[in-house]
Amino acid sequence: MRQIEPVRLQRDCTGIDWRALVDLFKLTDLAGREGDKVRRSFEKSDVVCFAFDGPKLVGAARALSDCEYHATIYDVAVHPDYQRHGIGTRIVEEVLSALPVWRILLVADDDVRPFYGRLGFQPFGDILARIDKLRLYDPK
Length: 140
Ligand SMILES: CC(C)(COP(=O)(O)OP(=O)(O)OC[C@H]1O[C@@H](n2cnc3c(N)ncnc32)[C@H](O)[C@@H]1OP(=O)(O)O)[C@@H](O)C(=O)NCCC(=O)NCCS
Prior knowledge:
The protein is globular. It has helices at 18-27, 36-43, 87-97, 113-118, and strands at 8-10, 47-53, 56-65, 70-78, 103-105. The chain is α+β, with helices and mostly antiparallel strands.
């Protein structure tokens, strides 16, 4: 396995190259994350975490929370060349460490459930969602 230098984690949006973040989401097949909406979503989030190899952005995640009861984690991504080296675990653990709440939600495809299972996430019964796809992108 290729050796990866320890990545640096950053817990704020200072100096983030937002186009690199959009590219990261494209590379990791996280659809529906485009344009300046991505920057605004991270800047408005309560917790953010970015991972860097030198100057290169290789991972990200964010969370919304009241920091009392509830939180939801979004946009967890690690660059394909850097996956399976513990970086995603470090990013999520960093986000979790900033969330002093009893219930943390996220949406996970079947294939990444083992990743989240190791971090303590389990299927949780009664979640409902209201979807409006027209709001997924900024108006042209
Ligand atoms: C999911 C993701 C963030 C994991 O990041 P990562 O840095 O590769 O994860 P880690 O190296 O910390 O993985 C730790 C463990 O989780 C499990 N795991 C990680 N990715 C997995 C996968 N795709 N399938 C099954 N198990 C996985 C493994 O047990 C792994 O340990 P191992 O490599 O020793 O077997 C990354 O694969 C990714 O960006 N995927 C595409 C985007 C995505 O699906 N994001 C989640 C949105 S909900």
